[in-house]
Amino acid sequence: MNAFTRLPDLALRTYGGSVVAANDESFAEREALIRPGPAEFRPHTFGAKGQVYDGWETRRRREAGHDWAIVRLGMPGVVRGVVVDTAWFRGNYPPYASVEACAAGGHPAPEELDGWVEIVPKSPLGGDATHEFAVTDPRRFTHVRLNIFPDGGVARLRVHGRVVPDPAFLHGLTVDLAALENGGFVTACSDEFYSSPNNVLAPGLARNQAEGWETARRRDGGNDWLVVALAGPGRIAVAEIDTANLKFNAPGWASLTGIDAGRVPQPDDGQAPSPDDDAWFPLLPKTRLQPDTRHRFRLDDDRRVTHVRLDIFPDGGLARLRLPGTLIA
After folding, report:
1. H/E run at residue 75
2. Eight-class DSSP state of 200
3. pLDDT tens digits for 56-101?
4. Are 101 and 10 in contact (CB under 8 A)?
5. pTM for the structure as a whole
6. Which residues are CB-contacts of 242 (< 8 A; sequence separation ≥ 6)?
7. CA within 13 Å, CB half, 233
8. Residue 50 confidence class, pLDDT cut points 50, 70, 90
């Protein structure tokens, strides 16, 4: 597994992504490309168009050309890698694929997009397989276009990268400094046995336990924790710790500490303040939590913060962590 797959999937439907156009979806709908979770398959399940697939599938081409689908990223940013998954497509997968990207302001219609650049060259694909392609282009993109040659089916398209929000919607406003969509990300974590810690920073509400962060059961007397790099240096006004859907495995208590590390790292450069650094200061003391509950706490702390450490005691899961505040220089 490439390191880039640990970064957020910028195209994910639950992160606001959308498959805004495709030239063909005769056998299976384009929207499946960005669904959360792996593709499912039930053999010998036939509809009016043949075997039902959890993916995007086009008709057999009898003319020159190739098929394509355009995805608007739910969280625009710098793409570090792309995954093209042909799960369950064995006799009907495309033998080749490429990926292009572009950046557009506002809310353009698909036909208004231009300036496409190739970020993954035309590359061979296999059937029922996961294909990972690293991307080195440093530019910020808002849309990607998957090209398949000449036709066939793709189960999932993942576009992993670093979120780069529009600064016009951050500075001077009260925003969630921890949110993935604003550029926050988890730099370190004690345990991610059941699910990714970045889930707690995802947009929207968690629909189930799998859409939050959950650790294994601790047997050593310690506690679990994660460190969040904020969207930028800021002052935090409120902390929201949400245990929604976690009825029997929520933490008993939680605390928050902050640090001004000077520089906020990029999510894939491996730089983060040590969780044991003496410069950490308290934001929220160890506080009791309730299961399946959204907890909100005023912090009233004017200190500059670049990272926040969340400790849960002793273990368990969280649905979301929100840290509304304002960015400062």
Report:
1. strand 67-85
2. G
3. 999 999 999 999 999 999 999 999 999 999 999 999 999 999 999 9
4. no
5. 0.88
6. 205, 206, 293, 294, 295, 318, 319, 320, 321, 322
7. 10
8. confident
Q: Enumerate residues 6+ apart whose C-beta is below 8 A from 128.
A: 86, 87, 88, 89, 90, 93
CA distances from 305 to 11, 101, 283 (A): 29, 34, 10
**Residue entry with tokens 């303040």:** 273
Interatomic CA distance for residues 319 and 151, integer angstroms: 40
The span from the CA of 8 to the CA of 201, in Å, is: 10
Q: Is the peptide bond before 251 cis (omega within 30 degrees of 0)?
A: no
d(C-alpha 62, C-alpha 200), whole Å: 47
Q: Which of helix, strand or coil describes residue 99?
A: strand
Across the beta sheet with 320-322, the strand order is: 294-298, 238-242, 320-322
End-to-end CA separation in angstroms for the chain: 37
Q: For residue 6, how many other CB atoms are within 10 A of its CB?
A: 17
CA dist., res. 236 & res. 186, Å (int): 17
Amino acid at 115: G
> Residue 225 to residues 191, 222, 275, 290, 309: CA-CA distances in angstroms?
8, 10, 9, 18, 7
CB 235 within 8 A of CB 326: yes
- Give the pair of three-digit tokens for residue 14: 């639950």
Cα–Cα distance, 268 to 252 (Å, whole number): 32
> What is the DSSP annotation of 109-151?
-GGG----EEEEEEEE--TT-EEEEE----SEEEEEEEEEES-
Angle (CA) 154-83-141 rounded to 5° is 105
- The C-alpha atoms of residue 44 and residue 35 are separated, in whole angstroms, by 22
pLDDT confidence bin for 52, thresholds 50/70/90? confident
Closest CA to 168 of 94, 241, 86, 105: 105
